[in-house]
Amino acid sequence: xxxPAAVPAxxxxxxxxxxxxxxxxxxxxxTPVAAPTPAVPEKxxxxxxxxxxxxxxxxxxxxxxxxxxxxxxxxxxxxxxLEIKNVRPGCGCTAAGEWTRKVDPGQTGSIPIQVNxxxxxxxxxxxxxxxxxxxxxxxxxxxxxxxxxxxKPIEATPQVAMLNNIPAEAPEGVSGIVTITNNTDExxxxxxxxxxxxxxxxxxxxxxxxxSYQLVIKAVPxxxxxxxxxxxxxxxxxxxxxxxSVTAFATVVAAVMVTPAQVTLPFAPLTARLTPAVxxxxxxxxxxxxxxxxxxxKDVEVQIxxxxxxxTFVANLKIPEGFxxxxxxxxxxSIKSNNPQFPLIKVPITQMHRPTPPALAPxxxxxxxxxxxxxxxxSAPGALAKPVATPNGTGN
Length: 396
What we know:
single chain, mainly beta, Immunoglobulin-like, 3 domains, five-stranded mixed β-sheet, four-stranded antiparallel β-sheet, 1 helix, 1% helix, disordered C terminus
């Protein structure tokens, strides 16, 4: 039996080729285009990254007048250089020292901050902040906070005693009260107050022995209208606060006040009737009586109305249209008073005058401009003719 013929072996079948991203891909119109390159995601820690050990510093309790200092420490947790671009305090009492400008990855830096607590700050909680601008893309601005409690062993409230509208004749009725409180556990005593201004006197009254007191400040005559201030100093038995200082500020008013002190009229002559008013206020202890109001000018009338008996008056003037005060003429409102210091109250009345035009040189005359020239300025004598365009681009 014959053996069957050998069947030749088939060639191996190659697997289908898988196109790569770099291969050309046909577009919808049949034109081959390059396949898009996928975006590489950014690493989460790329760039400089800032991280503070603590963004808030609590200084606890601090005595008024003593500055609070603290350095905020931070670390660059990123993979590139970190830059501190700026440090911006939130108020004038907070300041930044020389901070670390650039920090390499894994390294640390510091930002020193100082809060200047003034002696005038009241007892109680306080909070300040600074803003830090960085190159950290995810944390471009970081706010750092400083908080705590301001504490005074001995506190004066208020720090400034205001004595307003003191009558020059009788200032005894006006006084300023300041409370002095001992916040410590020790028993303290206060000495007699001392003033560096002769017009202020002060006395101490005890509310609670060793703990609470009242400082009474008064102004004493002779006084003149205006304002002035002084410093009241008190020595204490406390070693923490050996002295307490309080500022006293006073405003003194005259026995009789006139407002306004001068009546000023518009340009002469008046184009309409005017009715200006003058207020007279009595600040003395006695009642004021006014009589016989008058103005030394023709056709000007004046009438007094008593708003508050013996205290406040208004003098109403009626000035006619066309009224004019001549250059150099003295016009005033006069009112008689029963106050011996002000037997005659006088208020000047002035008026503005238009400036005189400058004189022309001899022989110079101003020619009137014709109305037609005002309507058409180009037709006025001496007006320049408008250039006419020519074919070569020049004007005639």
